Amino acid sequence: VVNLTTPVPLDAGILAVLDLGGAFVFALSGALLATRKRFDIVGLVVLAELTAIGGGIMRDVVIGAVPPAALASASYVAIAFGAAVLTFFFHRPLEWLARPVLFFDAAGLALYCVAGTSKALAYGIGPLPAIALGVTTAVGGGVLRDLLAGETPTVLRRDSELYAVPAFVGALIVVATHSQHIYDAPAAGAAVGTAFGLRILALWRNWRAPAPRVRAGPEER
Amino acid sequence: VVNLTTPVPLDAGILAVLDLGGAFVFALSGALLATRKRFDIVGLVVLAELTAIGGGIMRDVVIGAVPPAALASASYVAIAFGAAVLTFFFHRPLEWLARPVLFFDAAGLALYCVAGTSKALAYGIGPLPAIALGVTTAVGGGVLRDLLAGETPTVLRRDSELYAVPAFVGALIVVATHSQHIYDAPAAGAAVGTAFGLRILALWRNWRAPAPRVRAGPEER
Amino acid sequence: VVNLTTPVPLDAGILAVLDLGGAFVFALSGALLATRKRFDIVGLVVLAELTAIGGGIMRDVVIGAVPPAALASASYVAIAFGAAVLTFFFHRPLEWLARPVLFFDAAGLALYCVAGTSKALAYGIGPLPAIALGVTTAVGGGVLRDLLAGETPTVLRRDSELYAVPAFVGALIVVATHSQHIYDAPAAGAAVGTAFGLRILALWRNWRAPAPRVRAGPEER
């Protein structure tokens, strides 16, 4: 979730489409999980809203940008509400769209991490914490969604195809180019593109992040 | 949790009684859940405090009203602590009071949603996000309580008798009358009364919110 | 997590060592839990960061000290990242260090509760809420760690050897001496020492906090 006045050097029109598109797709993922969990319409709306705007609200609250961009305009709340209502009536065809949704989710992930890191830097946060906040923006909503639904957060699971890693790389590119004073529209575009491409590649090749070697044992679960 | 200086156009004395009463009853629900979960006195206090003041703190942090009203005076923390100690010694008779507690819980829900929406509007939040924050104020503490206790949040469950819906309706009345510049003490009272009445009706008639039609399957668990 | 400019009347050098040491040990506890849960390196980093800086960020956001001390310098994020990487390669010897880790965890608990209470008082929070925030600083990161890992939070469990109680006592000493205008370096040291000693004693003697008497029944599970 980005405020269009934040210094993300991208064409505002493109940015708005990607940003609201990301919110919509994140909201769909929340509403679909709520459906699988047999929650009612209230549960669908709550999970849709939290997934779409939770990460951005966390970032804005932490950097002192209150009220958060996601609540300063009605667009995000309305779009997530719409996604929940849509899922209520059409969850079966939407489940068939699982692959396209992953595509848009990758786009949302890529845009949110770049926008989140940019906004943190603009608020005077240092490079390393800015990366942490960029990743939080991208994955925070999904963590809230999974926590409330009683699932292990996707971002922590081994079979999540690197979920947080592309966000980390995108945030790293922003911070690196920013520190060299060469962070501009093409650099932001490159960061979004790299994060997006990496996520798509990881999904396609089924990549996994390394995990510590642990002997099988009673601790396993 | 309301600061008495917020522009909730209700008699301050009545408001304070309802507000602290709501905090007390929410705290009881937290401490009773902790007892059923076999937590110790520390767990009782933690769940009592979070249930009573968690929703209001979320709202205040998000709108930039820091320190939150719930921490600006000692009353809320003290009342929740008292509810935990009371539950520690008298949880068995308190369990017998389950029905009256639901009555007060409905009162807390109704007051918190109206007060939360009013405060959000007073801080310049737009109508739709103000409704979201009003509902968050009313149900946020309960969500924290359920998360920490390892339960599916009441607000998401089908058998919760509309829990969030009366809060939504109360918030909607506040926003609608506010947009027509007719939000005053009677309007606020009507919003509280409607939310309260709807919740009591839903409990009495065992109403449920609609849920998506899902075929039975492996996801059902 | 303390900002060295906060009015904690302790030698700044000693404080920094204890504070960063506390962050490191809390991060280790997060990364080790992630390893036992079979999370990948991303999960190790996320749990390490949240455990180390989550409690301090909660406190700072609530009192309006944004950006939080934990993000105003790179030290905390970097130290927690280092603890995660260390755990990735050396988790087996680190598991053998469980006892020493408990020793440092007690030190972190004691320092965080005193520093958190002091900072809350410095921001004009009243005595009772300041105690609540001091305890939150000390135990908040661990609660986030346990929630994300799908465990019952340590602080709520009966077999946690009083985990939150020493933090409460430390915070109480700070508030009591502060209210008598005798809060200075020795008083802060006494508070840290008392909290630390109480925690070590509780671990050694296997103390437990009292719990409500509940008859065995279907709720026990």
Class by SSE composition of chain A = mainly alpha
General shape of chain A? globular
Oligomer: homotrimer
What's the SSE pattern of chain A? HHHHHHHH
The major beta sheet of chain A can be summarized as:
none
Helix share of residues of chain A?
over 70%
Total number of helices of chain A: 8
Query: Percent of residues of chain A in beta strands?
Result: under 5%
Rg over CA atoms of chain A = 17 Å
The count of strands of chain A amounts to 0
The largest inter-chain interface, given as chain pair and residues per side, is: A-B, 35 and 34 residues
Ranges of chain A where pLDDT stays below 50 over 5 or more residues in a row are 1-6
Terminal residue distance of chain A:
35 Å
Mean pLDDT of chain A: 87
Description:
- 3 copies of one chain form a homotrimer.
- Chain A has 221 residues and is mostly helical.
- The longest helix of chain A has 25 residues, at 12-36.
- Chain A is 71% helix and 0% strand.
- In chain A, helix 1 crosses helix 2, helix 2 packs across helix 4 (75-96) and helix 5 (98-122) packs antiparallel against helix 6.
- Chain A has helices spanning 12-36, 41-63, 69-72, 75-96, 98-122, 127-148, 164-179, 185-205.
- Residues 1-6 of chain A have low confidence and may be disordered.
- Chain A has 8 helices and no strands.
- The first copy, chain A, starts with 11 loop residues before the first helix and ends in a 16-residue tail after the last helix.
- Chains in contact: A-B, A-C, B-C.
